[in-house]
Amino acid sequence: MMSSLVRLAAALIGLALVTTAALAGGYERVRVPSYDTDLDAVLYLPQGPGPFPAVVALHGCGGLWRDSGKLSMRHSDWGERLAQEGFAVLMPDSYGSRKLGSQCGVKELTVRASRERVADAAAARYWLQSRSDIRPDKVALLGWSGGGSTVLAAIRKDRRPADERPDFARGIAFYPGCRLQLESSSFAARLPLLILMGDADDWTPAAPCDYLAKAAQARGETVDLVVYHGALHDFDHPRLEVKERSDIAYSATGTGKATVGTNPAAREDAIRRVKAFLKGL
Where is 222: in which H helix or E strand? Predict the structure, then answer.
């Protein structure tokens, strides 16, 4: 009996140490069941008991983690920032969970923005809404680049969720690829959408998103597009020196090259706009 109690105490201490270590970085590691696998995910929670409004945040083609095994700087920055504003933030790892690395240079994707990642976003929403500390009717969807493209696909009127849980409340897309949605000729947003782009982006250019937003607005949909003068892809990164990447499968120039980097003014304005948009939940 005493031996069992000792083992139980040791296990509880070990669990406490793991939890403390996980929370030391401001987040905890969780598992989210999706349609074909369990997704590794990162969860940020605000202070207090909740229930909290929440954000499902979708990474771009580079994935969620740095090579060092640390959460990428952009994701940790936004996760901490939104948690401080009172939002729970869940970041599912669509690539690493399926044993995939960066997909930026892959032309034949097996985890596509418009298919598998839409299902992952829905699974993340469902998982959050199953928790007692989350407000199920106050879950927004946010994504960067390829994750932003997933946001566009996920909020279409013809992609309403099949489950009986509340739908996403709002969508935010940082520099998504709008061309596929534009060419489909059937894009229609079923919920408010904010798109944030740079007019100097030569990876996912702003022009297709401009056409998409204007067509949506003409139909009476709540789609707002903000285009920042001189801003590149990744303009909201907290600290990314301007550089040229040459490892891209699809770029606006067709060369496989694109320029990325932080734009402090655009980043500051985008942070302000995202907070204001989410406060409207």
Answer: none
